[in-house]
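Why show two proteins at once? Because comparison is the fastest way to build intuition. When a single record is shown, students tend to memorize it. When two are placed side by side, the eye starts asking what differs. So, the first record is below.
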Amino acid sequence: MPQVQVSVFGREGGTGGWAWTGGRADAVGEEEVGRTMPGRAELFADAGSLARGVGERLRHAVREVVDHQGRPFYLALSGGETPRGIFRTLAESPFRESIPWERIRFFWGDERCVGPDHPESNFAQAKRLLLDPLGIPEGHIFRMRGEDDPEAEVLRYATLLREQVPIGEGGIPRMDCIWLGLGQDGHTASLFPGNAIKPPDEERICHPAVHPESGENRLTLGLSLIKQAGEIWFLVVGAEKAEVVLDLFDRQGSYRDYPASLVTPRNRSTRVRWLLDREAASGLNQEGEP
């Protein structure tokens, strides 16, 4: 089986020779068209190392856009447990000073249908842990209005995206970077198994969603917009994610039911990165682990 080279980062940010072996990158059948083979895998010793890795990669990505294109950097944040530690790390030195925060425009990959001050709001979490500590101006923040009617809000947000974000292939806004999480059921953003990929939602850049277990209403970016991004970063932490990570990397088990398997780049210029901590990557066959 082919060997996929990955980078490994230790507690102090050092690199090692850890490689993942497995998968069937050279054996994609017709039934696999439109499903992801994970892109570059970057493995970290723990959640803290991963958070610092996100900071380093974000600093580089923003500098690339600002220095070479002279425009703002368009970033869609994720919610949930994993980004909390990342937000805290980014709001502290050295990233507080080294990332040109004033050039970033903030959007969201998904949101719960709650008010902006609600403890379950993805926006509220980012505001408390990242945006307020950094003093980000309100004019650089473009949140989903979870308190409004979902159908009306997805139309408003889609219009806002088209007005604010550079337009790419097919007339779809092209974010510079979208952060995605990964659920134990293989969901990502608020694209859930069984209700994520139904037409016409597949081509909508933003649409309502319903959590299949809680019945909670949500808003989410659609696959067409996610696939268009310049970079797509899956941020995955914890042993409870190991099985779904293995299924996706090795294309086994129930991976076809995972919405994350459908996050395929729209074109060759899109880069997919998987940032995994040691526990999330524990199911992979690793060689040369430091």
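Second record. Ask yourself what differs from the first in the token line.
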Amino acid sequence: MGENKIASKSFYNRLPKSLTTVTGFSKFIALCLFILLPFAGFMIGARYQAKIDSTLISQTTRQTSTSNNSTTSKLPDTQNWKTYTNAKFGFSIKYPAGIPVYVPDTPVMPDNITIPLPQQIATDDTSEKNLLIIIRKSDMTADQNVQERIHQDNLYNTSGGKSNSKVLTLVGNKFQIFMQDFPSLKVIKLEYFIDRNGYLYQFNINTSYQNESQVEDLVNQILSTFKFTK
């Protein structure tokens, strides 16, 4: 240990005095390095982070663009769709051409109308083949009805489904949506509600996990054509 200290001291003594003497210039250099090195490191890091952020934004933009184009291409053009009009309850709605809308001959309470989905959308599961429209008198608004559905589901649900809600606005119409997710069955139940003049308009569809996005997109497009006529 002592030998190492002696060796170090000997080496220090052999250095030129100009390298071991603290001068005003050396203090200035040390101060400059103390200030500039952290600043330079910060600038390099900031530029590197900006480059990473730019790359991520570019990738996200490309992915979003691709996703939007893909979604748009899947949805049919509503221009050639047929229009179903219900004078009794004062509404109209468009649906894909070539598919008959089913209205029961015998009045039922509540009234219901069935809109079958295109074969390329629907699967072998019959619950995915139809959009069921149910119309009934109700003292509750659409929002109150959805909240009550969630409350009842939380109290008495024995099927293991998970309920939730959200709001969807389509062409000025605000739909309250009640959703039930059944993980064991890999099925999602969707119920759309809108109210007017003491009546509750309900749109029901079930979809498998596999077809959820496609079915929901088509139903949303159908509902975007929904209009009150009185």
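One difference worth noting in the second protein: The first helix runs from residue 2 to 14.
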